[in-house]
Here is the input.
Amino acid sequence: MKAIVWQGTNRVGVETVPDPTLLLPTDAIIRVTSTAICGSDLHLLDGVIPSMEKGDILGHEFMGEVVEVGRDVRRLKVGDRVVVPFNISCGVCDPCRRGLFSACDNSNPNHRMAEALYGGVSGGGLFGYSHMYGGYAGGQAQYVRVPFADVGPHRIESDLRDEQVLFLTDIFPTGYQAAENCGIVPGRDVVAVFGAGPVGQFAARSAQMLGAAHVIVIDRVPERLAMAEAAGCQVINYEQEDVLVALRESTGGRGPDHVIDAVGMEAHGHGPGALVDTAKQRLKLSFDRITALRWALLSCAKGGTVSLPGVYGGLIDKVPMGAAFAKGLTFRMGQTHTHRHIAPLLSRIEAGEIDPSFVITHRASLDDAPDLYRTFRDKQGGCIKVVLNPWA
Amino acid sequence: MSEDRPTPPPETSPPTTEPRTDAAGQLPALERSVMGSVGVALMGAGLRSARPLQKLVLGSVGAGLAAMAATGRNPLATALKIRQTPQGEVLVSDAVTIGKPADDLYRVWRDLAGLPRLMTHLKAVEVLDERRSHWTVEAPTGTVSWDAALTADEPGRRIAWAALPGAAIENHGEVLFRPAPGDRGTEVVVRLAYRPPGGSAGAIAARLFGEEPAQQLRDDLMRFKREQELGFAPTTDGQSSARAVGGQA
Ligand SMILES: [Zn+2]
Ligand SMILES: [Zn+2]
Here is the structure.
């Protein structure tokens, strides 16, 4: 089959690889009908997330049709049309039973690697997302092996198009969880979203769905800001305005009640802090650049929430912790517990409350994917979200 | 966990090859120079490595060895979390919470002959009688075996054992089964103590080459948890990739 393969730092390519097979009786094989490139794939592309190996198949946002199931699979049948959460969860461990699916105890076969870095515990496995997260082959391919097939995949019974449900695999639940973590008081709270990429777009619209009185989106890319503006958000271009001043002014000096950092560790930005972050990352002394996080802590209102869907990887410093303490902020963060959001969000799509396909700017075949990785990384051609058809 | 051991009279004690610290708490000069050069070599390998994780690990291990050589102290054993008793025993312990009742988990452990399925470096345990058993372990130097005896057996709560005198690797250990708060099942705590061949240097070398008991114990406990909770171990062995070897099963 054809698959997108990590070939080394900043090199992805299309290669012909063996078709996947069932490795355990609880596995299923899915024929992928649609898959997407995610902003977090870019952390793999440039090697910021360690433990990729040459030849790894990328991709964690995919959906398709079940073509084979292992003998212990009960819920899923050949022919089912499914969306598959990007995180792999066993469904029986304590975190899974509490709905903390991304924190699954059991699904990461390489638990050692994460334990060494993260205080003796590892999260669950992820599709196509480095060996630290299990080394599972990803879904930017014609077929993919799905472990714990009775736990993750969610059947799509309605005739919604792929493009309307594909993002239930990651960016819609990720943006939604970020907004949900804020504990928005409907009709009262102001929410600021740093980063108008795909997750930021869904976070902003989820904040609106959860009743935020006002949503402000901060970025520097005009077409991304325009997309947020089209949804009724106020926008701030941080290259044209002083973010902290603009946010104070927009909120009567209080600051946003909740701030969502949908940027994560590869923030751009300027000033001495950003330069130091970049230099340290280049020297591999640090994984993270934290401009967005600094702004989040400095701008957030007293008693507010800082919600982090953006990925952080390692150690960070020069965090304005004094500001966070002085204002009594709450931090909420972590990988998305995708499984628990799919059914309720699918209902919202079916009810016509949201059509997630608004975020798509580019459609292509697998053969075009390597070019589009670069287009997406460099934010060229108005690129916000790329959907791939593995059979085109 | 500590036992009283008779100290042999000085005149009959063999020349020590263990990196004992002398009265001033200093490491022997030879060991210092060996550690210094290994440390510098590892630091170099770490700096040359293109992979950040490897760089971090090799670099810090190397720096630790070099510092140990320079200061003549033993910060590396501490940095590598090698814990030692004043008697020179290495302590290894770890814990895992498993969503099963304590009685079930106790029964699996109490079946000593079945232990090699839980602890993969154990080759065989032969039950000799109610108290005694014969243990065989796969070591880097070949197989090692000894006789052990149960020193405690409290159903659903605790099992403890100790190697009988004359064992090639003196060791003792215990496993505790404690109800976890809430409905989370059972906390399984394992504590092992042993006298490593080659002393702390042996323990450090073993850690660097991945044969270290603390990591083995961690892996064993996770395998046990997954066996009990899932009935199998998740795997990616044999999955598709663009690598010629380790690709398709
Ligand atoms: Zn994603
Ligand atoms: Zn789980």
Residues 29-73 of chain B form one domain. Confidence is low (pLDDT under 50) at residues 1-33, 43-49, 69-73 of chain B. The CA atoms of residues 5 and 172 of chain B lie 13 Å apart. Chain B touches chain A through 32 residues (CB under 8 Å).
